[in-house]
């Protein structure tokens, strides 16, 4: 494991070697970690499990588990912590949506800065931003700040049959990454596997399908 450093906002990140950085500059994404949260009851308050799966192209190499607060504000720090625990040859962080555990919104530029890795958010369809904004501003503590994080992440862009938000990589690089890690359907394997594992962790079972 690489030595750990400290990034923006005091977030821990792994110090990576020059070869990994060269790969990223050339747009070669062969190793990625994908995160998804576990399902939870509407009335649940407290922590929600988060699963991370590390892939070398389409081969599973490692699984990590963490937790974030329901509608909280610790998702960026927790994801950075988990990335620091992952194998040190990572090229890319994949997220299934910009928020975990309800409205625990990830700060994409901060996560990119903290880990030194490009961050790619993947969604099957473009979200209803008006509905999200209304929910944040009327029902979620700290909702105005969280809405600013969503705005700062930039618009969702069509890419490779899905929609993406990104930090630290171009749209063509995002499309190349999707092609590298996608086998079944339109969702990259690290996200599909994290989704299945997170669901099984809570419900005791899971099956393939729409991630």
From TrEMBL:
Gene3D superfamilies linked to this entry: archaeoglobus fulgidus dsm 4304 superfamily
InterPro entries cross-referenced by the UniProt entry: Endo_dU
Residues in the signal sequence: none
Organism domain of life: Bacteria
Name recorded for this polypeptide: DUF99 domain-containing protein
Native organism taxonomy: Bacteria, Thermotogati, Deinococcota, Deinococci, Deinococcales
